[in-house]
Amino acid sequence: MRRPASLRGRVTLGVLALLTVVLAGLFTAVDVALSARLHADARTRLTDRMALAQQLQGTLSMQRLADRLRGDGVVVRLCTADGATCATAASDAPPPGAGRPRGPRPGRPETTRTATVPVETAGSVIFVRSTLPGDQVLTLSLDTTQITEAVNRLIAFEVAGGALALVLAGLAAARISRTALRPLEDMTAVARQIAAGDRGQRLGAPRSDTELGRTAAAFDAMLDELETGEVRMRSFLSDASHELRTPLAGLQANAELLLRENPDRDERERVAVAMVRESRRAARLVDDLLTMARLGQGLPLMLERVDLLALAGSEAERARSLSPGLHIEVTGEPGLSVQGDPVRLGQIVTNLLDNARYATPSGGRIAVLVRRSGSRVHLEVADTGPGVAPGERALIFERFGRGDASRSRHTGGAGLGLPIARGLAQTHSGDLTYVDGGPGATFRLDLPSIRPGADRPPGPRTAGWEDSAGG
């Protein structure tokens, strides 16, 4: 039989198959138990009559004894030992499942006895034979054909009733499964509408306390996330193309200037310097985009013990050379080490210092503090710039997010430095957050510290966003 293609058909077929097995097992058990019980009653009937004959022998004539033992389908044959004289008595077959024969009148306790004689079988007839006192041979027989026919009629009734029950159960299961699985059909319809371009469709499950209700709610949440992700991707591509367009436009303008005109040496040098500056700007943006992509796919790290205070001091020297008008100082506890990639950790500190340099006016101050906090090491970078408004503190950690509306490289920047710094911090089982530390902005890098002798040997490791929970 071909397997149904629909889930509803498979559920209905499964229910019918299970019900068929249950009914078959139940009916078989009932038939076997009933047949065994009826045959046992027939055997007991013969042995009881034999016990009664042993009690009454000698008190009644042969014919009267035979007549006394007949009934309930029992056939009696009582003969002398030589077979010269016989008395027989037969009765109509008893109804199926008839009880034991009536014994002697009440008040005679010996009727409860059962003879210990073997019950023999000859085809459909069972019989017992015993020699009574006085050299009389008593044979009691009973035809079990009525029992077999009764069991067969019961089987036929069970088959007919079971078939009717399966038909009704199949109809009920199909209706119930259609109602129960309707949300899945709704999901299919919504998915097709979304694939056709109607992105605003949702299931809107009224109940979330059922399996399908929770599935529908999860389906809606997935659609919301996909739609949000698509919006973010479009925004990301738009911002990336906008940021790349500026340096590329500068390169194009300077190249066209060299082609159209024949500038003197000084002008050519100025144009060349501008082209190098714009190319470096584009290269840095491309490198930032590549770093963001690698953060999502797993970034290879060369792990070793890193002295965070020494690292901060070396990066601060670079920042001083780039911004001599700013006062940059580094303080902290010496000997605070973390396990990490010194190049990537240096990139985090560089991004934080660059962010502080862009935001701090000339003559301002940038303070770098390295300290221990329990089992963690904190590196804080604080500046005396305008700070970040409370409503924009989550935005600055998003790709191409800025703390102001300007697209200027020297104020808002491309908006990738802080997201990259946070992503790198998370690959080292840490985090980067904004804290209220003064009039300007304060960023805190939180990393797990290592105990002396507890660091693992240097070696490569691949880390991604998922490592933020445990490294």
TrEMBL record:
- Top-tier EC class: transferase
Kindly give the PROSITE patterns that the UniProt entry links to this protein: HAMP (PS50885), HIS_KIN (PS50109)
- EC number(s) recorded for this UniProt protein: 2.7.13.3
**Which residue intervals define the domain Histidine kinase in the entry?**
239-451
Q: Which UniProt keywords apply?
A: Kinase, Membrane, Phosphoprotein, Transferase, Transmembrane, Transmembrane helix, Two-component regulatory system
Q: Which domain of life is it from?
A: Bacteria
Q: Where is the region Disordered?
A: 88-113, 447-471
**What is a single molecular function from GO for this protein?**
phosphorelay sensor kinase activity
List the catalytic activities from the record. Answer: ATP + protein L-histidine = ADP + protein N-phospho-L-histidine
Listed under GO cellular component are: plasma membrane
Coiled-coil segments: none
A Pfam short name:
HisKA
Q: Which SMART domains match?
A: HAMP, HATPase_c, HisKA
Chain ranges of the HAMP domain: 178-231
Q: Where does the record place it?
A: Cell membrane
Query: What name is this protein filed under?
Result: histidine kinase
Which organism does this sequence originate in? Paractinoplanes abujensis
